[in-house]
Design brief:
Layout lengths: L8 H8 L15 H19 L5 H13 L12 H14 L9 H15 L3 H13 L7 H13 L3 H13 L7 H13 L3 H13 L7 H14 L4 H14 L7 H13 L3 H10 L12 E2 L7 E2 L2 H8 L6 H18 L7
Antiparallel strand pairs: 1-2
Helix pairs in contact: 1-8, 2-3, 3-4, 4-5, 4-6, 5-6, 6-7, 7-8, 8-9, 8-10, 9-10, 10-11, 11-12, 12-13, 13-14
This protein binds zinc ion (2 copies).
Length: 342
């Protein structure tokens, strides 16, 4: 049975989409004349550039969303067009309107392109990169995505540093350069990007871009979990995989299942995916295995029959290492806080 330390599509999406905290709705503060002017100009420009014609009513609803959404109070077509087009793209991409826009992802992509290319807006560049990476409203192009993440990172955008760092570590969209990826991830962490810290931990676990130190990777994951921000479920899933594989900790399927369950309970997609694998019987490999060894609590079984068979199995009998595992279990319970890596 093999497990990886993440790095799938969900990981990349999560890193790229970590948003600034929601700010108060500013719809009421928006000058109606300015909104009307923005609407007329946006409709004309969209029609000219893309041939898509929106009705005035749809346009007004969209602008209402923009100025009511997070970051919307800084958006203005005259004063801050980059922010304006980024927020507009987000409103269209989320399609949080009581109507269905035709080709809404293409329109969102066009908005991001306007924000990124014309107005050099970092968040617009980041959203454009995300669209290119996922092929949303545009042909999938990871290499172009990396270029836009780089441009936004050069302007100091922390989520883009985190996303590009992950690209470099994984070699997706760019030639693999784990050391440069790790450095970018560290920069994002220093700017307060919590999700990047989970990836930094995974770099320590795998020795990607930094000297391998699995115990330190686990230490960082526990730190993230204790902080309890939105990165917590991702860190819990990564810790579960450590317990599963014995990376930086003694292998322990009960602990693995516990951490994985916590992340799955709040909807973490990767945790939901691997939970059945973690709850696998140590003898027959069926899942889910509901019982565990009462003595060491480190291995799972379907039932007493599988447990007895595993106890005396010819190759790798559990009888041989149960006592050692039980002792390790007790030590862990007694001295968990003193063993923390510095
Ligand atoms: Zn079994
Ligand atoms: Zn045991």
């Amino acid at each position: 049975m093999e497990h990886t330390n993440g790095g799938g599509t969900t990981t990349r999406a999560a890193v790229a989409s970590q948003q600034v905290p929601a700010s108060a709705a500013a719809c009421a503060a928006m000058d109606p004349d300015a909104r009307h002017r923005a609407c007329v100009e946006f409709r004309a420009k969209l029609s000219r550039d893309t041939g898509v014609n929106l009705t005035a009513a749809i346009c007004e609803s969209l602008l209402g969303l923009v100025f009511g959404n997070e970051g919307g109070e800084q958006a203005s077509l005259e004063g801050n067009p980059g922010q304006f087009y980024t927020c507009l793209g987000d409103a269209i991409a989320k399609q949080s309107l009581p109507l269905v826009l035709p080709d809404h992802l293409q329109i969102a992509w066009w908005c991001y392109y306007e924000a990124a290319e014309v107005h050099t807006h970092p968040a617009g560049m980041r959203s454009l990169a995300g669209s290119l990476f996922h092929g949303e409203g545009v042909t999938e192009d990871p290499a172009q995505a990396a270029i836009w993440y780089q441009k936004a990172a050069d302007l100091g955008d922390a989520p883009s540093k985190a996303a590009l760092g992950l690209f470099l570590v994984n070699g997706s969209g760019v030639a693999k350069d784990a050391a440069r990826g790790f450095a970018l991830l560290r920069e994002a962490v220093d700017q307060g990007h919590g999700m990047a810290l989970v990836v930094v931990a995974q770099c320590y676990l795998k020795g990607e871009g930094v000297e391998k130190d699995a115990a330190h990777g686990v230490y960082i994951l526990r730190q993230v979990i204790n902080q309890g921000d939105i990165s917590k479920p991702k860190a819990e899933t990564a810790l579960a995989i450590c317990y599963m594989n014995g990376d930086g900790v003694e292998a322990d399927t009960v602990q693995a299942a516990l951490w994985c369950q916590r992340a799955a309970d709040v909807g973490n997609a990767e945790a939901i995916q691997i939970l059945p694998l973690i709850r696998t019987c140590n003898f027959c490999s069926s899942s889910p295995a509901r019982e565990h060894c009462e003595r060491c609590r480190k291995v799972r079984y379907c039932n007493a029959v599988c447990q007895a068979a595993h106890w005396k199995r010819e190759t790798d009998p559990h009888k041989g290492h149960c006592r050692r595992a039980a002792e390790a279990s007790q030590q862990e319970a007694g001295g968990a806080s003193t063993s923390a890596h510095q």
